[in-house]
Design a protein that fits this description.
Length: 348
């Protein structure tokens, strides 16, 4: 092997010679590394470098920004190691080169590199493939479930929400994972007494139209939250729909019985309230007020007959006859009536 170089890949496209031994573990895909390096061409021209220890170059393995040879070499190094690399065009800048770094086409590259330190790191969400996101969502769901079993509902809720943000797969498998997380969020919200949120998450699970078992769970979760918000008719409808999916489900049957009893009690109370209200409206004597006798009108009707100042002209007086006696009697009776009415209306 040339000058102590070893092949890091079978075709010899990446070779390494250790200049200073390192120690400890080696970085892997996703690891964040701090390095010092200098890159030269075959004629010794430096095309790239970062040798400032105060401000080392930071890279992450596998982010497709580094050339392939650089990634391969870093995964073979230990912290503190210094090495010299020889990289062929296939693992460098290829047949296009790099005009910004003045690297010509099909150029062989030589690097001196030192790995200062590294730490394992995961890819950013936007760097993950759809399949990797699906796997990350499942991993977070497992973590959330462990927290839920510890009755740490608030933290479990946070993890489930993060898991849901990774769900981009639109296949049947992807929708089932989404529905599973929505159902978990529904029960977390229920335990945290966030009943409206619990209902909303259950509805979202139903909207995904996945398997019947998940639909059953969503209806059940929604019914429980509706009971807490006193939406008993909604809860009854949810439980009846759940029973159509599984008529032997004991939890659904038990809650259905409870809701029916609650509705029965509610209707009995409403009946009592309306009955009392109806009776009060029938027998409330305060609404029946006696009509007052209007003194003004009574006086008006008798004024011509009861006026004490009225004078009877003498020239109209004649000898009493039977007819005149009847008229006189009528006047006397009217005067007596007016006196009686006036006495009844007088203040006590």
């Amino acid at each position: 092997m040339e000058g102590g170089f070893i092949n890091l890949i079978e075709d010899g496209g990446v070779k390494k010679r250790i200049l200073q031994e390192g120690q400890g573990e080696m970085p892997i895909d996703g690891s964040r590394c701090k390095i010092l390096f200098k890159g030269t061409l075959d004629d010794g021209t430096i095309f790239d470098s970062s040798l400032d220890k105060e401000r080392p170059y930071k890279v992450r393995i596998g982010n497709e920004i580094l050339i392939k040879g650089f990634d391969i070499a870093l995964k073979s190094m230990k912290v503190g190691e210094k090495a010299e690399l020889k990289i062929t065009p296939n693992y460098g800048y290829g047949n296009e080169g790099d005009q910004y770094k003045n690297v010509p086409k099909n150029a062989n590259l030589t690097y001196e590199i030192e790995l200062l330190n590294f730490k394992d790191g995961k890819k950013q969400k936007w760097e993950l493939t759809i399949e990797e996101k699906q796997q990350e969502a499942m991993n977070k769901r497992t973590k959330g479930t462990a927290l839920f079993k510890q009755q740490n509902y608030k933290e479990a809720q946070k993890i489930y929400k993060k898991a849901l943000s990774y769900c981009t797969l639109t296949t049947a498998e992807g929708n089932e994972l989404k529905a599973s997380l929505q159902l978990n969020l529904s029960i977390c919200s229920y335990q945290l007494e966030q009943y409206k949120d619990s209902i909303d998450y259950a509805k979202k699970a139903l909207d995904l139209k996945t398997n019947q078992q998940q639909k059953l769970k969503a209806l059940y979760r929604k019914a429980l939250a509706n009971i807490k918000t006193n939406e008993l008719d909604e809860a009854l409808a949810d439980l009846k729909d759940a029973l159509k999916i599984d008529s032997t489900n004991s939890a659904v049957i038990e809650e259905l019985s409870k809701v029916k009893q609650l509705l029965k009690g509610t209707k009995m109370k409403e009946k009592e309230i309306y009955s009392k209200l109806f009776q009060q409206q029938l027998y409330d004597e305060s609404e029946i007020e006696p009509k007052e006798i209007e003194i003004k009108d009574a006086k008006s009707e008798c004024s011509s007959l009861c006026d004490p100042n009225e004078k009877i002209e003498e020239e109209n007086q004649t000898k009493p006859t039977d007819e005149n006696l009847e008229v006189q009697k009528l006047k006397t009776d009217n005067n007596d009536n007016c006196r009686i009415i006036s006495e009844e209306q007088a203040p006590v």
